[in-house]
Structure prediction request, 565 residues.
Amino acid sequence: MFAAKLLGWILLGVVRLLTGAQARWWGCPPKAEQRIYFANHQSHLDLVMIWAALPEELRSITRPIAARDYWANTPMKRWITTEVFNAIYVERGGTPAPAEEGAPAPDPMAPLMPLIEALRSGDSIIIFPEGTRGHTGEPQKFKSGLYTLAQMFPEVVLVPAWIDNVQRVMPKGEIVPVPILCSVTFGAPIALGADEERRAFLDRAREAVVALRNV
Amino acid sequence: MNAFLRNLTPTQQVAALFVIVFGLLAVISIATLLVGFRERRNAAHGEAWLREFNDFRALLSTTWFMVVVFWIGWALGPSVATVLFAIISFFALREFITLSPTRRGDHRSLILAFFVVLPIQFVLVGTARFDLFTVFIPVYVFIAIPVVSALANDPSHFLERNAKLQWGITVCVYGMSHVPALLLLSFPGYEGKSAFLVFFLVFVVQTCMVVQHLIARQFAPLAADAPQPTGLRGRLQRLLGRAPFAPNVSRSFNWTSWGVGMAIASVVGALMSFITPFKFGQALAMALIACVAGSMGHLVMKALKRDRGIPNWGPKGVGVTGANGLLDRVDALCFAAPIFFHSVRWYFGV
Prediction:
């Protein structure tokens, strides 16, 4: 417990030194209500960035999701992810794609179960609805997990976030990060309309994230 | 008074200097605070006044910041001061790189710049290896950076990317490292007082920037149909309110107000000659050299910023980069320090 706390401080210091980890509460104030933060995904460090950008009080009640194949492949990483970040593991590529014409996936809810549990227990969560890291800088289409969660938990506030510059700190395949200022911009919350279609909602959510790039 | 000051040990003299500066700053800050309170209770002035007032407050906090930095640097000795400037240099370079887009192929070069070049440069300064530290970046790093970039196998915009990186290193690391280097110059009969030299440089450069800034603010060119002020103010307005010389780069730069800034700062420098190892005329010349280099460097950085399409390093408020505008505050110093350092070394042979 103590070790986790100490390492948390050290990590926070390093992240701040390298990136500034600036949080810009543009569309909503930092507030201890139950929220789903959804952000663009360009680097594994996104998780660390948004964790470092949140204020201390929110950090303890907000759980980021982490891809199991990357964040659980060594004991050290697994320990950091669970003890320091208090993350929720998800299977990558497991979040079901929006149902195509073909047969639906066997159990579309299964990969979302850990998230649902976290939300049921009152925690806020951070998700990356693109599912995988983009290469182009343009976020990819959002997967439907966000829609499902928004339907199941209508009282939870949906906050879009844009994480800027992180891919420059540590591009894919590099292990040493370089100091480049990064920021996380939190936008105005969005809500699922009464009879909004899944695709329309997901596109609107994606636009809300992209719109934060230039504010 | 004068005799009393002369009888103090060098350490006491420097301490006295800091006491005076802190005292002045405290008085100005308290006055500003009171004016701010009164203004908040019943707003008597217009929006333009308020904007100017806020500008002044920003300037004041910058000054506080710099003085505190120097005080810490002096109080803890040259090696701590060197570390302090290394940290400032790190943050300045971080800001510079953030706002100059890099590609994936630059990653290794960036690692080299931040984690190898920067520490080595400041270690060379800290250990007073003057012969090596003046050539380390212009000679060795100059070749090392493009080699690393070339090995990354990405030829697109190669010259442009490398030029940016070289520039960043030269301004933020090489330039900045010359400030603590001043602490290590040993003039005969001036031992223990090198902190004065750093103070002299910073104060003179800052004075010339502030004077230019104030002139630009007070005597901005009037619109053609605006009423012309009369009397002394009118004459000053006609003299100083010239059209900007290079409006695409800087909307405030013109030769007349630049000249006035230089003159005032040089005279201030000359008046401070008693704290330096220079005579009156030498101090005047050295201050002039530092101010010309600093203000021209600031102009060059403005051109760079315009090219990137940003008004400040770290836009006002907090921009998407989260940069906080440190580079805006130190860029003049980064250009003035190497020129000042080498002029002093060359002329006095120390």
Summary: The longest helix of chain A spans residues 2-19. The first strand of chain A starts at residue 22 and ends at 25. Residues 94-105 of chain A have pLDDT under 50 and may be disordered. The two ends of chain A are 39 Å apart (CA to CA).
